Amino acid sequence: MKFDLHNDSLFTDSGEFIKKLHCPLVKSWDEMHPGQRNSRTCDACSCEVYDTSQFSDRELLLLMSRNPNACLMVSPTQENLTVVNFMQNQTLRSD
Amino acid sequence: MFGQPKNNPSNLRVIKTARTLDAINLAANNGFRPLVKAVVPSPKIHSAVVVYQHRKTGEIVVEADSRCSPGIDYEIVIPFRRFYPYSFSEPYAAYLVPPDLAEGETVWLEDLIEDLVAVYGNQGWHPRLESSEAIWKKGDFVISFNPEKDARRLIG
Question: Is B22 on the interface with A (CB under 8 A)?
Fold first, then answer.
């Protein structure tokens, strides 16, 4: 998957939009309780927050199609992520 | 920014940085002691890029991911390479040390002069640390940051 620094959005490797990440509560992953497999529970809104390092692109797309409001966690050091930091990058698309 | 520590989470005293001759001397004339350091780009800090060009139209596509190609109508004109993505106006800068700073005091360095890696990302993305906590010890700041442990995660 790819993370676009300029709009905090997550895409698949082929450029398919997954989610724009934004939490107004500014919660910390370390403060959350272990939830179901590959997730933690946020006390503020009782949502499951999914660790994207444990998902494939296809699995994340499926997750978001079933629950468009699912919360995700992205770490800049995770192995399955490429950070895209070019405003002029034209290959990402959100449609 | 993603990967960087939160801005002064402990509400520490903020140490400013001056990056021009005039700004440094102005601070000195206002009671600060400029701690002058060289601005030295680190080879450990880089981004990466590959540039494709359309064979017929000449338009280019810039990618930061070596796995992706815009298609057979494009050819690589700049192979995947690392580069230093920052620029500074002068080769020197100074932390502006207030006269009452105590030995051992923990502060927030708002604009780091030293080039430290903030994140060891994959595919060549190693941004520099922008700000950090630091401890004032024996006339210098000891920066407290572990990129593996302290790189911020994004939730949403």
Answer: no
